[in-house]
Amino acid sequence: MKAIVVTDQAAGTAGMTLVERPEPSAAINDVVVEVRASGFVPTELTWPSTWTDRRGSDRTPTIPGHELAGVVTALGYGTTGLSVGQRVFGLTDWYRDGTLAGYVAVEARNLAPLPGDVDFPEGASLPISGLTAWQGLFEHGRLQAGQSVLVHGAAGAVGAVVAQLAREFGAYVIGTGRAADRQKSLDFGAHEFVDLDADALDDLGGVDLVFDVIGGDVQRRSAALVRPGGTLVSVVGPVEARPTDGRAVDFVVESDRAQLGEVVQRVRDGRLRTNIGTVASLDDAVAALNPTERRTGKTIIRVRR
Ligand SMILES: NC(=O)c1ccc[n+]([C@@H]2O[C@H](COP(=O)([O-])OP(=O)(O)OC[C@H]3O[C@@H](n4cnc5c(N)ncnc54)[C@H](OP(=O)(O)O)[C@@H]3O)[C@@H](O)[C@H]2O)c1
């Protein structure tokens, strides 16, 4: 099968190459999925799991990409809940070969059925952004209707879903980003927008929840805005600043079939819009994943039609 591989951490996405790799086989409780569309998070090539296995041994050449939508082609020993020919989408194990390939082996529990009226690129754009937003807002952030949420990077892949879900849930949503992101952030559900380069974050007063996808100085300034009893949720590693009278949580997204179902149902009934910036074929994936100018929204690789 065709696959994108990486072997050199220092090279980043520029080190991606399109090669032939053997097709994976299904282990216990796995399915093999014929990948139709794949999602890739640009920071993936900095994660240790891209380069080493769970024991810390080199696992290159690595196939990156951990989001997929596709069709089940084989079941492993003992696998239940999915069937050959079924349309699925979901999130694959960080430590296994990923989805920028013709086929991927993945534990069935990490996948959910993809309804027939949601196309494969849309399906592949949802698992990381959708689950991260859901878990950050509702599990870790314990969001309540009527609360205020500061959503950093609200025009980005994760932020656009956070803004939409928070608004649907009855929160007051303040989106942030660069000046060029203002209209897109408002379109994705923010009630107001803060340009992080030009506006003063500190003028906001208090918020109940900060959802941080940026970190560094932005996170440090945001921690001070959390109201007593509020929460700062970070998806960019250990928190660097804690609210004085609130919680701080950092987490890595996990797959969850029921939550995938919640997210995709919202796409079907129009409550949630996907944030896809670029769709490219697997043959063009290396160029698409090495853009020469700024892009917003997710890059989806259409592996097979
Ligand atoms: N822990 C987890 O489970 C988890 C899950 C998903 C994602 N993540 C992490 O979350 C981060 C965001 O992911 P994503 O897919 O949403 O990325 P993305 O689509 O690039 O969105 C990030 C947005 O924030 C903006 N931004 C970044 N730094 C900024 C700054 N200093 N000032 C103003 N705007 C800024 C970006 O603009 P520019 O493009 O112009 O920088 C972009 O619009 C990544 O680091 C990713 O690894 C973690």
UniProtKB/TrEMBL annotation:
InterPro entries assigned: ADH-like_N, ER, GroES-like_sf, NAD(P)-bd_dom_sf, YIM1/Zinc_Alcohol_DH_Fams
Name of the protein in its database record: NADPH:quinone reductase-like Zn-dependent oxidoreductase
Gene3D superfamilies xrefs: Medium-chain alcohol dehydrogenases, catalytic domain, NAD(P)-binding Rossmann-like Domain
Lineage top rank: taxon: Bacteria
UniProt organism field: Petropleomorpha daqingensis
Family matches, as SMART domains: PKS_ER
Enoyl reductase (ER) domain span: 12-301
Single GO MF descriptor: oxidoreductase activity
